[in-house]
Amino acid sequence: MYTTINNEGLLNNYSAEPEVYYAEFPSQEEQSRYALQAGIATLFLAALGLVACAVS
User: Fold this and answer.
1) Which residues contact residue 34 at a Cβ distance below 8 angstroms, ignoring those fewer than 6 apart?
2) Residue 53: inside a domain, yes or no?
3) Could you give phi then psi for residue 31, rounded to 5 degrees?
4) Range of the domain at 56
5) In-domain check, residue 18
6) Which of 4, 12, 20, 45 has the fewest CB neighbours in a 10 Å radius?
7) What are the pLDDT digits (tens) for 1-56?
8) Structural domain includes residue 2
């Protein structure tokens, strides 16, 4: 981080920028895990909706 001072004496702080990198496509194992998580989330939300309807 570095700081500059303008003519009026005000400080201006600049943060260090992180190194840029490209994202990698998920592996087949990660894709399978994401599909499983999506399935579990769908079942959870469906059950939550059914419970809400049953209670009301």
Assistant:
1) 26
2) yes
3) -65, -40
4) 26-56
5) no
6) 20
7) 677 887 888 888 887 788 999 999 999 999 999 999 999 999 999 999 999 999 98
8) no
Q: What is the count of structural domains for the chain?
A: 1
- d(C-alpha 56, C-alpha 51), whole Å: 9
Collapse the DSSP code of 2 into the 3-class scheme (helix H, G, I; strand E, B; otherwise coil) and give the result: strand
Quote the pLDDT of residue 45: 98
Distance CA 43, CA 32 (A): 17
**pLDDT score at 50:** 98
pLDDT at 7: 83
pTM: 0.58
Q: Is residue 15 part of a domain?
A: no
Phi-psi region of 9 (alpha: psi -120 to 50; beta: other; left: phi over 0): left
**In angstroms, what CA-CA distances link 29 with 18, 22, 32?**
29, 20, 5
